[in-house]
């Protein structure tokens, strides 16, 4: 009756000792898929429910072997990729989030206390190591707390609780990213280490209902915020799927990007309601420009509709950069240069129009250089759009109206207490 994720082919050796209704497996060693595993575990069948106690360790964990834990078929991922595995799980053709249920009925049959570590994650673009998680399953209440890993020399700590006693399952996500170098974090996406000193830190707090990851996030509400303190940022002109990340940075930060972008402070934050994430706010202050963003994305449909605009701080005889749109789906992002008139429409198709205030004055052919420098205090605190100010202390009128996206008076400093 014990439910385990569907792994790829595994081969294990261990010593078994039976004592009444307790089974002890020691000296465990073997492989599952392209990952190794070692440790010990005990299965005790004497109580009301079967109880599993385990201490397991992996030296190298292949990213494909992680897929069963979030609802993907690892064999399909290995053979045909993530999108094919998502489609097989029941997700729509253009989606990535799996729609396969994690078999809730079996998680009421047994209890578990598991301690797992992995020294390194084998991945082409995500630098992750030093993974550790404590798994506690008690009568259908599943907690992954703490779940800790090192990502590009920064630490990510999570507490995730899934209540399988409720139908559908109720999940609480609390994910905290400590200060992490962007050069290492985004190196697989074309960001150059030489010339990039910027860091990023953030927090995600979401609550959703659903037996599958897609359903849980598609119904989730909460807040996501990522803060960028002072530093530099430089990118190589490479492709990220169909989204040209290098060109995006060139269009938004500097005309030719001959030198690294000098960032004073930045905040990329979203208020999430029923799976729809609205920018609240996106605000990046550099030495030359103020970058703002509108729109958002949907976990339910996996569509994106965000518009970014760079407004110069100094007088220029050439026009400012045209607004840039990121649209499409999680699986196939699209980059477009759009007209200023379309800037205020970002997110309308996702039902986010109510969250956006009318756009500020549009850029003219001659950029008068009137961008309002950001007061970095509220930015670094992760404050909502309504709390953002210019350096002169005036409320910003170019970052939307975050108040309409909130359901309560959450203290932003408390929410981003790790800062």
Describe the structure.
- Helix content is 10%, strand content 43%.
- It contains 7 helices and 20 strands.
- The chain has one domain.
- The strands form 2 sheets. It has an 18-stranded mixed β-sheet that branches. A two-stranded antiparallel ribbon has the order 13-14.
- Helix 1 packs across helix 2.
- By secondary structure, it is mostly beta strands.
- The protein is elongated and about 80 Å long.
Question: What are the SSEs and their pairings?
Answer:
Layout: E1 10-19, E2 22-32, E3 35-44, E4 50-62, H1 74-80, H2 82-88, E5 110-122, E6 128-138, E7 141-151, E8 154-163, E9 170-181, H3 182-185, E10 199-209, H4 213-218, E11 221-228, E12 231-233, E13 239-240, E14 243-244, H5 245-252, E15 261-273, E16 276-286, E17 289-298, E18 304-312, E19 324-329, E20 332-337, H6 376-380, H7 412-415
Parallel strand pairs: 4-5
Antiparallel strand pairs: 1-2, 2-3, 3-4, 5-6, 6-7, 7-8, 8-9, 9-10, 10-11, 11-15, 12-15, 13-14, 15-16, 16-17, 17-18, 18-19, 19-20
């Amino acid at each position: 009756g014990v439910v385990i994720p569907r792994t790829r082919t595994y081969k294990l050796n261990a010593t078994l000792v039976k004592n009444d209704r307790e089974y002890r497996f020691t000296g465990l060693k073997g492989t599952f898929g392209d990952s190794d595993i070692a440790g010990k575990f005990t299965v005790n069948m004497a109580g009301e429910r079967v109880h599993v106690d385990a201490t397991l360790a992996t030296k190298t964990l292949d990213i494909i072997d992680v897929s069963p834990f979030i609802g993907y078929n690892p064999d399909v991922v290995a053979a045909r990729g993530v999108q094919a595995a998502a489609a097989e799980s029941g997700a729509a053709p253009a989606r990535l989030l799996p729609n396969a249920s994690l078999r809730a009925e079996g998680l009421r049959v047994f209890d578990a206390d598991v301690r797992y570590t992995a020294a390194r994650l084998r991945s082409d673009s995500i630098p992750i190591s030093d993974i550790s998680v404590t798994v506690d399953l008690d009568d259908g209440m599943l907690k992954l707390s703490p779940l800790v890993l090192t990502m590009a020399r920064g630490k990510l700590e999570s507490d995730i609780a899934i209540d399988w006693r409720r139908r559908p399952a109720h999940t609480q996500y609390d994910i905290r990213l400590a200060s992490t170098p962007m050069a290492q974090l985004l190196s697989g996406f074309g960001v150059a280490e030489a010339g990039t000193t910027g860091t990023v830190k953030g927090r995600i707090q979401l609550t959703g209902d659903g037996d599958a990851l897609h359903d849980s996030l598609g119904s989730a509400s909460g807040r996501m915020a990522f803060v960028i303190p002072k530093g530099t940022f430089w990118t190589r002109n490479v492709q990220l799927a169909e989204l040209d990340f290098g060109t995006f940075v060139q269009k938004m930060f500097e005309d030719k990007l001959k030198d690294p972008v000098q960032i004073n402070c930045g905040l990329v934050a979203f208020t999430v309601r029923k799976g729809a994430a609205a920018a609240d706010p996106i605000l990046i202050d550099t030495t030359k420009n103020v970058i703002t963003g509108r729109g958002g994305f949907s976990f339910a449909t996996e569509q994106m509709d965000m518009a970014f605009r760079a407004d110069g701080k100094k007088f220029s005889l050439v026009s400012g950069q045209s607004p840039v749109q990121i649209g499409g789906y999680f699986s196939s992002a699209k980059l477009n240069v759009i007209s200023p008139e379309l800037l205020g429409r970002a997110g309308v198709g996702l039902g986010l129009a109510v969250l956006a205030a009318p756009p500020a004055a549009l850029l003219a052919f001659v950029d008068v250089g009137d961008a309002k420098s950001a007061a970095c205090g509220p930015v670094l605190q992760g404050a909502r759009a309504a709390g953002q100010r210019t350096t002169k202390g005036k409320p910003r009128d170019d970052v939307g109206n975050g108040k309409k996206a909130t359901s309560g008076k959450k203290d932003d400093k408390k929410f981003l207490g790790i800062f």
